[in-house]
Amino acid sequence: MSSTPLNILQKLMRRWDAVHPYNAAQVMKLTGIPDAVAWRNAWQATLAQTGLGAVSLDHNRYEFVSLNGHIEAYNVRFPETDLSEFISNELNRPFDNPHEPPFRPFILRAGDFFYAGLIYQHWIADSASIRMLMREWFVRVYDPPAGATTAL
Questions:
Q1: 3-state secondary structure string across the chain
Q2: pLDDT tens-digit map of 32-57
Q3: How many of the other CB atoms lie within 10 Å of CB of 136?
Q4: Which residues are paired to 116 by β-bridges?
């Protein structure tokens, strides 16, 4: 991907983020028991297909860069906690590792259902973009041939 200039809202959100994490979350509630391998593989495939990875910033421009085989360090997590507590903690946890992608995928089991979600740095994407990313992740778990074959 080529570098993209930050828009005025992204610049403002990055300033807020410097004071306190300005993260957001999107969550899906699904029935059944999640297949950890399938969800992790689907996440890796989604990042590879979309070209998303860590973010490189250069003044007022940014671009996504490959994780260069380091996806395992930033793969889907399976926390064992309450959803509200987990989301609250993650919304307040900074993305302070420059090698980490601006997305933290998770699967949280809750009986006969589970939550699949993404915590993300809000300046990087709006909720509509994240929902498209989550849709692609979901499709790659449940109907892999229907996954996107071009960048979203």
A1: CCCEECCHHHHHHHHHHHHCCCEEEEEEEEECCCCHHHHHHHHHHHHHHHCCCEEEEECCEEEEECCCCCHHHHCCECCCCCHHHHHHHHHCCCCCCCCCCCEEEEEEECCCEEEEEEEEEHHHCCHHHHHHHHHHHHHHHHCHHHCCCCCC
A2: 999 999 999 999 999 988 888 899 88
A3: 20
A4: 28, 107
pTM: 0.91
What the block records as the tokens of 74 is: 């930033």
Beta-strand pair 54-58/4-5: unpaired
pLDDT band, residue 146 (cuts 50/70/90): confident
Yes or no: say if 133 and 50 are a contact pair by the CB < 8 Å rule: yes
Q: For tokens 């671009």, what's the residue?
A: 63
Residue type, 137: W
